[in-house]
Amino acid sequence: MEVTLKKEVHDPQGSAVENSLKSLGYEAVQRVRVGKYLEVELEAPDQNEAARLVEDMSRRLLSNPVIEDYSYTLEEVRRQ
Amino acid sequence: MKWGVVVFPASNCDLDAYHLLRDVLGEKVEYIRHDAATLAGCDLLILPGGFTYGDYLRPGAIAARSPVMGAVVDFAAGGGPVLGICNGFQVLTEAGLLPGALYRNSHLQFRCLETYVRIESSSIPFTGAAETGKVLKMPVAHGDGNYYLPEEKRLELEENGQIIFRYCDFEGNIVREANPNGSVDSIAGVCNRAGNVLGMMPHPERAGEKILGSEDGLVIFNSLLEFYGNREVRGGA
Fold this sequence. Notes:
The complex is a heterodimer. Chain A is of the alpha+beta class. Chain A is built from two helices and three strands. The chains are: A alpha+beta, B alpha/beta. At the A-B interface, helix 1 and helix 2 of A face loops of B.
C-alpha cells in the first residue's frame, strides 16, 4: 500500500529531498513527494474480501483522509 | 468537580497537567489510563502532550484508536469539555473530534520556544474569562504542529467562530515570523462546532506559574472553572 500526501498539501519532506537532489546536480528534478509504503499480510477467503478489508483499514487507520490519499495492490500468497 | 488527565503510552505532559491542576489550582484530578473503559466520573478531560506510540504512522493516530477513546467520544458528544494540548490536539483531530490535521512543521525542525497567541474568540467555555484579542504567552514544543485543512473548510471554521487561537507577535499582530510551524492562517487552536472540544498546540499547563516564565495559560483553566464550576476566577492572568 502507498500512502501519499494529497497533491494540494505542501510536502516539507519532499521539498527538502528535492533541494538535496538539486544540490547534487540533478537539475532535471522538478518535484519530489515523500510518501509511505506499507505491507499488510492478511488472511481472506478471496481477493474481494481482502480488498474490502484493506479499504476499511485504510480509511480507519492507515491514512488520514484530510491530508492523504492511498492506493494499493493485492498479491495472493499461499499459506506454507 | 473532578478533572481527568488521559494517559497514553508515551504521553509526557500528563505530569505537568496533573501538577498544575492539583498543586497550583488545588483541584481534584486523576489519571485515566488509555485502556480504561470509563472516565471515572470526571467532569473535565485533558488529553496531554507527548509522543504517544512514538508518533508511529502519524502523530496521535494510534492513540486515537485506543480503548479509552470510545468513552472520550461519548463524553464529548454529551457536551463534556475536552481539552487537547499538543499531542492531545493531534489525537483529537485523528479521532475526528476536531476538524483538520496536524503534520510535519513546514521547515522540518522541532520547535521548542515561547510563542504568543491571540484569543480569536472568547465565547467558548475555554476562553470565557478572557477578552477576545487578548495575547497569551505560552511555550510550544513540537515537530508536527503544522495545521492543515482545505480552504473551504477553513472558511467554514472562521464563519462558525471555531478558530480560537492564532500565533501572533507580542503585540497581537498576526505576522508570518510568529508562526512556528507553517500552520494555515497561523492557526494555533480550534474547537468543535459545539464549543466543548478544544485543541491547541501551545502548552497552557506549562504556563501557569511565575517560575515558568508565564502564568498566561491559567486563563484557560480558570475559564473552564468559571463556566463549569460556577466559581470565581483565581490567580494568574
